[in-house]
Design goal:
This protein is α+β, with helices and mostly antiparallel strands. 21% of the residues lie in helices and 31% in strands. Bound molecules: alpha-D-galactopyranose.
Amino acid sequence: MISYNKEKRVFKLDTENTSYCIGVVDKENFLGHVYYGPRITDDSIDYLMRIFENPFVPSQNERDRGSFLDSFPTEYAGSFLGDFREGSIQVRDKNGHEAVQLTYRSHEIIVGKPELKGLPSTFPGKDHVETLAVKMADDTIGLEAVLYYSVFEKEDCIVRSITVKNTFDAPIHLTKIMSMTMDMDSEDFELLTLYGSWARERQIDIRPLGYGKTSVGSIRGESSHQEHPFMALVEKNATQDVGRVYGFSFVYSGNFLAQAQKSQFDSVRIMMGIHPDCFDFELKSGDEFVAPEVVMTFSASGLGQMTRNYHDMYREHLIRSPYKDRTRPVLINNWEATYFDFDTDKLLDIARQAKSCGIEMLVMDDGWFGQRNDDNSSLGDWQVNEDKIKGGLKYLVDEVNKIGLKFGIWMEPEMISPDSDLYRAHPDWAIALPNRTPSKSRNQYVLDLTRPEVVEYVYGCISSVLKSANIEYLKWDMNRQITDPGSLYLGKENQGELCHRFVLAVYELQERLVTDFPDLLLENCSGGGARFDPGMLYYSPQIWCSDDTDAIERLKIQEGTALIYPLSTMGAHVSDCPNHTVGRTTPFKTRGDVALLGTFGYELDVTKISPDDVSMIPAQIENFHKYNDLVRNGDYYRIASFRENNVFDCVQIVSKDKKESLVVFVQVLGRPNCHSRNLRLKGLDPKRVYRVEAENEEIIRLHGDTLMNAGLMIANPWGDNVSIIIHIREA
Ligand code: GLA
């Protein structure tokens, strides 16, 4: 997988379909980017770095060292020494200087993949993975670094990260550290990123890549609703099936920067890492900093292959939960059903009715603790409110279990309400800046998780709630972003460490949680989907995708999310209509069919919805069980996108052995006077004969090649927001 051409000093990293090459040049050992793309045979390709043309390398043309640094395609860019493009790393050394330039020292090829201490990271699992560790250094400031490249062959992924160490006798401040940088020739690329807002997460945005810097990022203390730790460089006019696509996905849940910079010489510099704003990490002599990793993939055949690479990669090499390979219990969550207005009797009524429909778990959402009757108080006071939960938590859980349902609970552990016993006792536990009025959001503050006693307190609360009754699921929420980044605990030299230390503490808490409660089903959440990122998937097999449960809005949200993340990770529920976020009314069937493409569950008062809707639940749950193995494990193909065509949406899942496939078709807008629609399917075995059923009725038997090339006819459905399920099986 990893080879080294000693003469040319070129490393070649091969996956099944791609090659990634880097090279060492000149006497000073600059590390350059050589090639990334479809798999190639030769490694004697140092010429791609253009070191044999003007301005040449410094040993040949010292007078133009600056020009060399400013045009050399680098693997990790220094700062302020001649390369005027964006640097990968910046420091403030003991003299107050900020310049840095890491160059190659030695390398090692490791079988396996080293873990990143304290951080989520991909792992080999059962597969053979090799890692190239390139040792780098800047002797002037005593900084050593290791660039890691792990090769995941089958998934066509290369995973990059960096660790740096201060070997000097004085502290050094790390003020910027990107996890990866890569320079390549521009090819008329477009940039694909995901943007959004609360209830509108992960919308796909594609724009031409112009000169200068184009970036997305978050300085909100979480990966955010607004911008996503992902970027793809996409060949102009690429489609699902055609075109070169480079994907970069950041395994981190806090502030991030993802940037593309097109230079004067038409090269593109991609970089991704922790956002340098609000980041200043002191490394004392001997200290090491471990940066989060970036998962890169290349597809020569469009966005669809990039998606399938990421799905396989994250399913096999990132998600650890034992639930990854299991059908999750069909849950009913009481948030949209009751909001804060519930008690034991109400929940038990819901549980009884839910049980009679085949639902398998009741999740008690926000409002069960302290004095929390609205969202103004009590975060931090994790004692059950016995005025509402009469008889206590254990009584409720036992009763729910007796009805035959599992029980799950909601918590928001990282938060503190100003109106809470916790805040009255420990006002200094909230993140705040001295002499400033802190910005409240949803009337709450964020706990200062850099304080060890706060982490202990939080963990104590979570574990005592979980131990107090038979609680089998936890929804871990995070409902506000970080502002006023000040800690009364950290010293003046260390205030810039707060945001990263906060994320590390969340990871530490979740690591403890999944270790101590290995059977717990953990679902992360952040005001909907503001922390839907690869970092959180390392701890929880599923994440609440969005507070917007409207089936039509979900088409776009789930399309953007599924661009990177497997369907098994996307929290999706059937809710009541008119939808609480957009006021839209959609058929109950469509809501069920769209939620089928995620984890599936209900978020409504099953004692109040119409008898017609109630009567449809058992069949929906049957469908869920029928298709869930396929949905969880299959290959994802996008046949049509409502986002693009404004009329209809169509997703297809194909089992790995190509014996079975599911197509979910949603006609959003009815069309007058139209003939049937031709759907050209994907991913099937061309030679196999398939039996095609629409809504459980066989409609045709055809070979895979016919279904994929000639297509399948779907009659023009009557009405808006109508969905059709097509099941395809080997005949
Ligand atoms: C967030 C979540 C919701 C719900 C509420 C409770 O907004 O995304 O699902 O849990 O908090 O306050």
